[in-house]
């Protein structure tokens, strides 16, 4: 798909320096992003596992197509609404890595099968039967992955026999097809000691793969064995028995991934702001606050400033307090910030501006923004 297939109000800025952008603006350095894509793709290729990148942090079909060109077999979405956007954008193989519950959403799911091959996570027999009945009534078949809880303690069946029992019942249905199992070893993310983190990942995946093998010994065919996110992908991809990894946010990288999760990717995503006030030589006020960039999971980091003593976000402003007085930046200057957490920042914007060599190359509409249903 052409990167410029979805023009936006800012396309007239293409070719101009990024400092010419009105602010606040969400930027991605295309060279850095492409390097991150290549790095991730190589890990999966070298370890002979498929890549199904999560798009909850990018929400742009044109980017999904870039990842498919880099070797991805499809994409992962957090919400059915995101999957509808990706399907409309021409992505043909989609996993919704959440449970789709209730008659309204299930009706959307079965109807979407005519436009893309969409599978979903399940962990409840009643929900599975509802999907099965709706699929039969529509004349389609919905692929499902049973989600297994390997330590995150969010959704998912217990490893071992509870998963085997659900898999056996699911495999006997006609309107759904048990495509495999999935998990998310997210409880390992914030372990800072890399040896300890690797051991925790290995333990979680071992439990997961043991459950996969138990299903197979019980006569249940398990094809897809899916797990892994950006914060663990380089460890998880090496584990035996895994067939695909869901990591996606690493194409951007951000403060959370690098500082808290140990992801060694350079930063590709930033916010461009304007300095709107210098009340004193130690204080800088910019026109980008919580409505522009989130600080919940990790604070954004200003680029190119002298030593910062503290920083705070209000609704519409960033307040940067310097350790020592400084004349620059001046009112009207542009100030860039590395994004704190890309997943919750992208969703605040209508468009993403692609930068190469300091100039605007492309502007993408964030078509999946707000697709929470």
Helix content: 25-40%
Low-confidence stretches: 1-7
Q: Could you say what the CATH topology of the largest domain is called?
A: TIM Barrel
> Would you state the CATH class of the largest domain?
Alpha Beta
Question: How many helices in DSSP terms?
Answer: 10
SSE arrangement, N to C: EHEHEHEHEHEHEHEHEHEEEEEEHEE
What is the number of beta strands? 17
Largest sheet: 9 strands, mixed
Strand content: 15-25%
> In the CATH hierarchy, what is the superfamily of the largest domain?
Alanine racemase
**Structural class computed from helices and strand pairing:** alpha/beta
- Mean pLDDT figure: 96
Q: Between the first and last Cα atoms, what is the distance in angstroms?
A: 25 Å
Write down the Rg: 22 Å
Structural domain tally: 2
Looking at the overall shape, the CATH architecture of the largest domain is: Alpha-Beta Barrel
**What's the overall geometry?**
elongated
């Amino acid at each position: 798909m052409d990167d410029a297939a979805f023009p936006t109000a800012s396309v007239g800025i293409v070719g101009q320096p990024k400092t010419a952008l009105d602010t606040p603006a969400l930027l991605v350095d295309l060279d850095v992003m492409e390097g991150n894509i290549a790095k991730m793709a190589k890990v999966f290729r070298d370890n002979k596992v498929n890549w199904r990148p999560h798009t909850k942090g990018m929400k742009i079909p044109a980017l999904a197509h870039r990842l498919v060109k880099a070797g991805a077999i499809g994409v992962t979405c957090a919400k059915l609404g995101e999957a509808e956007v990706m399907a409309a954008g021409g992505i043909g193989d989609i996993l919704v890595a959440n449970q789709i519950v209730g008659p309204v959403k299930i009706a959307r799911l079965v109807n979407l099968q005519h436009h893309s091959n969409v599978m979903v996570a399940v962990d409840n027999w009643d929900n599975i039967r509802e999907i099965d009945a709706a699929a039969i009534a529509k004349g389609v078949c919905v692929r499902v992955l049973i989600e297994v809880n390997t330590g995150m303690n969010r959704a998912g069946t217990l490893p071992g026999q509870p998963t085997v029992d659900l898999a056996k019942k699911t495999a006997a249905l006609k309107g759904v097809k048990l495509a495999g199992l999935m998990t998310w070893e997210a409880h390992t993310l914030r372990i800072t000691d890399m040896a300890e983190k690797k051991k925790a990942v290995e333990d979680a995946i071992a439990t997961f793969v043991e459950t996969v093998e138990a299903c197979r010994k019980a006569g249940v065919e398990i094809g897809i064995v899916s797990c892994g996110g950006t914060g663990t992908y380089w460890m998880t991809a090496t584990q035996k028995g895994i067939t695909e990894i869901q990591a996606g946010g690493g194409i951007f990288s951000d403060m959370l991934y690098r500082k808290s999760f140990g992801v060694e990717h350079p930063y590709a995503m930033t916010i461009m702001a304007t300095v709107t006030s210098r009340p004193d030589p130690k204080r800088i006020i910019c026109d980008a606050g919580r409505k522009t960039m989130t600080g919940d999971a990790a604070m954004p980091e200003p680029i190119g400033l002298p030593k910062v003593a503290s920083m705070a976000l209000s609704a519409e402003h960033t307040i940067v307090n310097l350790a020592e007085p400084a004349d620059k930046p001046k009112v009207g200057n542009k100030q860039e910030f590395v994004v704190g957490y890309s997943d919750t920042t992208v969703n605040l914007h209508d468009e993403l501006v692609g930068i190469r060599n300091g100039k605007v190359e492309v502007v993408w509409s964030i078509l999946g923004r707000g697709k929470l249903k």
